[in-house]
């Protein structure tokens, strides 16, 4: 029989809420984390004792934080892939690895890969000039290939004038390897997300496909599973996400953000919008709504352990983000608890240890149950209450 | 509308697995913990960044760790009540407070209170001499009033000779306020546990009554809810636990350990065995089996926030402890994962970051589902596998 081996230490790069929420299953699994945080006291640094403050662009810093760790994973997708190759040469394996991660870092590389795989996606092209944009056709969406997030670096272009700012932004960043991507403006019914976990062994687990509501490029609500989704389309989306994870060699969580497009005959299909290779906002519902959360399966995958079941635990689970409201002076985080918890003893709250600022994600709530309308009402009410903005819902 | 207030900091005294498991809901609630650990690197010290190593018997140390905290709570029940009164004078409230806590520290004080409340309990007396023990009647159970745990400080006495050791042990500790308690040896059907959370507001929540299997005074298994328990007895046990919590002014989690005694006519009743005032081994199933875990409700109670629902999320939840086996050289903690997780994708594992030693609690597993036999088989198999001791269950 084997003797006890100490659990391997996992380095986590980036101190945001995704790293913070990895800490909870790490406690249960008995797996120590070592954090590289951007600054003292950031979200994950509040809850992971073994930490270093430093810059993830610096290879020496990455070597220091991963010393004694067998694997490294991420709160975000921005670590330079050449540094991950250097760490691999040192014997520290990144999950996801650099060959996979580049598809989450560079949207043009991602589009090229989707074309190669024959994955359904919007028509796209790399553009450099106003003439290129006109030739592509308006309206369209322009995106910088690297560095955009939460709606930043994305422009909807309806007139030639609308293209001036993105063309200039991309030109100014060209020497940093940034290209400008034009995409067909899809007239979608809604956005969906297909989340999978994949281990280095090749084992993979697909969560139910969810519907997501994005406002100004920021995720606001998730409904799991997506209501009224054709079962064939749902299965197809899971298969697509599993195939992308396998073909790109993703390890850890992969979120495939999708557009659901409905044809004139009523049939619907999905188109790949974005890829994310880390626990994802559209998977936060799994903390309370699935047998195994995306955060636990991300850690299990990083350690090449068997994955946990992605099955839902309730008929419906709704996640609503808590964002800072428009008035920076007003907020209800901790002081929102007495009402929110008394009104709904089944409410699940997840705060990130961040100050409220307008538009900033500072937490989310999960509500599960048999009645979707009831779940939506409860989750929306609580999130609005925490941000101090009940709008017309006052009671 | 109120402006944002920072979340109050909670001091936690004691660095064992109970404090460790408070860290998970503290992350979700956005509530910072400050830990007083017995030594560097103990179970909770691995997962709570804000920590101090020191001796909880020392008031100055307690003052240092609670400085800037509004409340203090506990991993164990051993902090001297006079220190808690001193902290209260400083403005730091203990949950539970000293007036309640003494009932979990001193079994004679507890028995006196149960008599006062008219709570059903075994016949008992304080004894000092062999003659007292004979007068009480044999067989009986002798217990030191203070400092026993997990079966230590408890003796089953069947002959006058059996009383020699406990009488000597109590006499030696008399100057530390230790008395010797004699209790009727109850011929019980099984042990039950009624767990409640109670907030300073007076709000309380009762978890389903569970059946517990104790071996040599150590909790081995819990089944939630207790199978085949008369509904009237179950409700009565919950009401009893709520009444004890209210009458003693408990804040936080109270576990009332009970004997179920069956009369000749088949009717059963419960007798109070022990009280614990902290998250309790018989409540670990709530982490995966209830809407709100005992650890989260303990923190909510300490902050006087509304309590979360104690409802079960599954028909059955089984908890089995992982204990070190007899051979100190053999163990399967981290290296037990590949088999245990692959065999059961729904298994929930909680390890405490402790080395395996014979008889030591190093973790537990939770399994939930509709079929109790299936849950028991899965949980027992996994716990045996982790301790490297499948016995006759090999497959």
Automatic annotation (TrEMBL), chains A, B:
Task: Give residues annotated as binding ATP.
Answer: 107, 143, 183-186, 191, 273-274
Does the keyword Membrane feature in the UniProt annotation? Answer: no
Using the record, list the residue span of the signal peptide; answer none if the entry has no such feature. none
Q: In which pathway does it act?
A: Purine metabolism; IMP biosynthesis via de novo pathway; 5-amino-1-(5-phospho-D-ribosyl)imidazole-4-carboxylate from 5-amino-1-(5-phospho-D-ribosyl)imidazole (N5-CAIR route): step 1/2
UniProt cross-references to Pfam families, sorted A to Z: ATP-grasp (PF02222), PurK_C (PF17769), RS_preATP-grasp-like (PF22660)
Matches recorded under InterPro entries? ATP-grasp (IPR011761), ATP-grasp_carboxylate-amine (IPR003135), ATP_grasp_subdomain_1 (IPR013815), PreATP-grasp_dom_sf (IPR016185), PurK (IPR005875), PurK_C (IPR040686), PurT/PurK_preATP-grasp (IPR054350), Rudment_hybrid_motif (IPR011054)
Q: What reactions does this protein catalyze?
A: 5-amino-1-(5-phospho-beta-D-ribosyl)imidazole + hydrogencarbonate + ATP = 5-carboxyamino-1-(5-phospho-D-ribosyl)imidazole + ADP + phosphate + 2 H(+)
Report keywords, A-Z.
ATP-binding, Ligase, Nucleotide-binding, Purine biosynthesis
What broad class of enzyme is this? ligase
What EC number(s) does its UniProt record assign? Answer: 6.3.4.18
Q: ATP-grasp domain: from which residue to which, for each copy?
A: 111-303
Q: Report the family membership.
A: Belongs to the PurK/PurT family.
Cited function: Catalyzes the ATP-dependent conversion of 5-aminoimidazole ribonucleotide (AIR) and HCO(3)- to N5-carboxyaminoimidazole ribonucleotide (N5-CAIR).
- Summarize subunit and interaction data from the UniProt record for this chain: Homodimer.
Q: Which HAMAP family match?
A: PurK
| Protein's name in the database | N5-carboxyaminoimidazole ribonucleotide synthase
Phylogenetic placement of the source organism: Bacteria, Bacillati, Actinomycetota, Actinomycetes, Propionibacteriales
């Amino acid at each position: 029989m084997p003797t006890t081996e100490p659990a391997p230490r996992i380095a986590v790069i980036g101190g945001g809420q995704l790293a913070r929420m990895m800490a909870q299953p790490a406690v249960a699994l008995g797996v120590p984390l070592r954090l590289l945080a951007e600054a003292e006291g950031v979200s994950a640094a509040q809850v992971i004792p073994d930490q270093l403050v430093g810059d993830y662009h610096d290879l020496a810093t990455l070597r220091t934080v991963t010393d004694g760790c067998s694997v490294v994973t991420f709160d975000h997708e921005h670590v330079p892939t050449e540094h991950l190759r250097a760490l691999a040469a040192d014997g520290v394996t990144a999950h996801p690895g650099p060959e996979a991660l580049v598809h989450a870092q560079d949207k043009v590389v991602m589009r090229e890969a989707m074309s190669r795989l024959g994955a359904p996606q919007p028509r796209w092209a790399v553009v450099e000039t106003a003439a290129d944009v006109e030739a592509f056709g308006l309206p369209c969406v322009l995106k910088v290939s690297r560095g955009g997030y939460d709606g930043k670096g994305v422009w909807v272009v309806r007139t030639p004038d609308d293209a001036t700012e993105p063309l200039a932004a991309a030109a100014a960043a060209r020497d940093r390897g940034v290209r400008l991507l034009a995409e067909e403006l899809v007239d979608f019914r809604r956005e969906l997300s297909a989340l999978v976990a994949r281990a280095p062994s090749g084992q993979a687990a697909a969560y139910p496909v969810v519907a997501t509501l994005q406002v100004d490029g920021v995720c606001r609500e998730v409904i799991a599973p997506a209501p009224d989704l054709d079962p064939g389309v749902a299965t197809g989306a899971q298969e697509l996400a599993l195939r992308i994870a396998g073909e790109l060699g993703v390890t850890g969580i992969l979120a495939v953000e999708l557009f659901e497009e409905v044809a004139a005959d009523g049939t619907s299909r999905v188109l790949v919008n974005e890829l994310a290779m880390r626990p994802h906002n559209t998977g936060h519902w799994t903390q309370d709504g699935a047998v195994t959360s995306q955060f636990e399966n991300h850690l299990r995958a990083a350690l090449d352990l068997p994955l946990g079941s992605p099955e839902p635990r309730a008929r419906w689970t709704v996640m609503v983000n808590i964002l800072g409201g428009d008035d920076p002076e007003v907020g209800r985080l901790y002081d929102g608890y007495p009402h929110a918890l008394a009104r709904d003893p089944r409410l699940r709250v997840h705060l990130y240890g961040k100050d409220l600022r307008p538009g900033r994600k500072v937490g989310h709530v999960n509500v599960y149950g048999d009645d979707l309308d009831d779940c939506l009402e409860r989750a929306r009410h609580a999130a609005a209450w925490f941000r101090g903005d009940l709008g017309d819902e006052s009671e």
